[in-house]
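hiii so um. not sure if this is the right channel but i have a protein structure encoded as tokens and i wanna go backwards to a sequence. like what aa goes where. can anyone help
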């Protein structure tokens, strides 16, 4: 007899899971989630979990927002599908485009897709299209950072600077350049201030551009706060210095707002939190609260002007998907953005983020914790083997994985990223009492982890 439930056995038999070891899955079986309510989800046994990651950093309005359900249902009844090719467009998609542009400072036009990866992929194509349009066809290389996460399509996966997205896939493709990660805790020299570290990273960026030839470098892509690479807020003055270098050599900046966008950092966009003035912005996840697959690539007026002229010269803008601007996700996204405004979700984030950050940072005193960091309602706790030297645990010890598994036993879903860093990214609607519950459960998981580490 199988040790797994019937449902689990069917899953193992038929379904290849993303970012999962298929051999281990056969042993452990899947963790089956059946329903959601507020900041909680429930497994197929009816057990409740506080979702401390908002799923994959996206369920910003929790798991039971009726207004989003109603918006989807209304749209399914009225117009369940239409496309946006050859001048046609669903009416609701026009409304969403107008709303997105009204809420995104400095942006002129939006190009929809279904996932963050597709938006990043499109951004890469547009860097090439743009430079062809303005008569600089050599300017094609794109700079991304170590530990960046930009998705998994061939282009986005190439920009992602984490081995798991490239190993075995023959990625990255060419035209991708790599620059250093702004991880002060891990990468700064002993005693180096945030400002001095930021200057060093900016100098390295300039050296890279000069070594490659500025006439060959088209763009840089950066998450305002790096997400899957470790939840890494930029060190003080970083983006100011990076942007000065990019400007000097006429290199476009793409802000990857897939996690930061729509309120996560306490402003509508991470670009506002860190005074970034990008030429393009990618956004997904929170755009629909995760309820429907939709992403948006936003472009500034000068970029749009070049795309417009080039497309006219070529006869059309030869890009788009069957589901570009799909009316159902568009209706849900439009409702999401209306809720952000009508419920003053940003006001709530700003009110509750100081408590979140204070409670998170209180763990910095714990003997297992190297650093607790974050901004707004995103944070991380980096577990280390030795606080003083910051030495990490051996990967084989699985300390971070143990900690999140322990949290799950206590009814809290978190995620281990970048080795032994535990990420926190709860729904933006989380209450103070739910935050207390989240950190109390995490404290118990950390105590279990201490026992585990002592036995290593
Ligand atoms: N960019 C960033 C910053 C992300 O965090 C992610 C997803 N975690 C992506 C792009 C890719 O988005 P998707 O998984 O929707 O393709």
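sure thing!! here u go:
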């Amino acid at each position: 007899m199988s040790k797994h439930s019937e449902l689990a056995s069917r899953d193992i038999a038929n379904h290849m899971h993303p970012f999962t070891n298929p051999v281990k899955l056969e042993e452990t079986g899947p963790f089956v989630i059946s329903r959601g309510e507020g900041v909680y989800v429930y497994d197929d046994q009816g057990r409740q979990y506080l979702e401390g990651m908002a799923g994959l950093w996206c369920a910003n309005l929790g798991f039971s927002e009726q207004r989003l359900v109603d918006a989807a249902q209304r749209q399914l009844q009225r117009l369940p599908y239409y496309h946006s090719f050859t001048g046609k467009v669903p009416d609701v998609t026009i409304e969403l485009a107008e709303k997105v542009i009204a809420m995104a400072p400095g942006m002129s036009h939006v190009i929809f897709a279904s996932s963050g990866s597709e938006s990043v992929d499109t951004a890469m194509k547009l860097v090439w299209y743009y430079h062809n349009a303005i008569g600089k066809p050599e300017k094609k290389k794109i700079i991304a950072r170590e530990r960046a996460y930009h998705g998994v399509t061939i282009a986005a996966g190439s920009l992602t600077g984490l081995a798991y997205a490239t190993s075995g896939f023959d990625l990255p493709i060419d035209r991708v350049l790599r620059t250093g990660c702004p991880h002060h805790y891990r990468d700064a020299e002993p005693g180096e201030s945030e400002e001095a570290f930021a200057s060093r990273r900016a100098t390295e960026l300039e050296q890279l551009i000069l070594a490659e030839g500025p006439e060959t470098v088209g763009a840089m892509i950066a998450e305002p706060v790096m997400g899957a690479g470790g939840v890494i807020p930029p060190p003080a003055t970083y983006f100011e210095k990076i942007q000065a270098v990019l400007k000097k050599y006429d290199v476009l900046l793409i802000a990857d707002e897939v996690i930061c966008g729509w309120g996560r950092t306490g402003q509508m966009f991470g670009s506002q939190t860190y005074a970034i003035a990008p030429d393009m912005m990618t956004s997904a996840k929170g755009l629909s609260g995760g309820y429907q697959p939709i992403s948006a690539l936003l472009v500034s007026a000068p970029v749009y002007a070049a795309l417009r002229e080039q497309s006219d010269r070529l006869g059309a803008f030869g890009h788009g998907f069957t589901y570009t601007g799909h009316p159902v996700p568009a209706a849900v996204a439009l409702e999401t953005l209306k809720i952000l405004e009508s419920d003053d979700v940003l006001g709530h984030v700003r009110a509750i983020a100081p408590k979140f950050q204070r409670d998170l940072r209180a763990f910095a005193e714990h003997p297992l914790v190297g650093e607790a960091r974050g901004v707004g309602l995103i944070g991380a706790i980096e577990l280390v083997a030795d606080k003083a030297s910051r030495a990490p645990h051996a990967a084989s010890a699985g300390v971070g994985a143990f900690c999140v598994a322990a949290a799950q036993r206590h009814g809290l879903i978190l995620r281990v990223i970048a080795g032994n860093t535990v990420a926190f990214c709860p729904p933006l609607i989380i209450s103070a009492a739910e935050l207390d519950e989240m950190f109390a459960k995490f404290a118990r998981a950390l105590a279990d982890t201490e026992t585990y580490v002592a036995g290593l």
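oh and The two ends are 34 Å apart (CA to CA).
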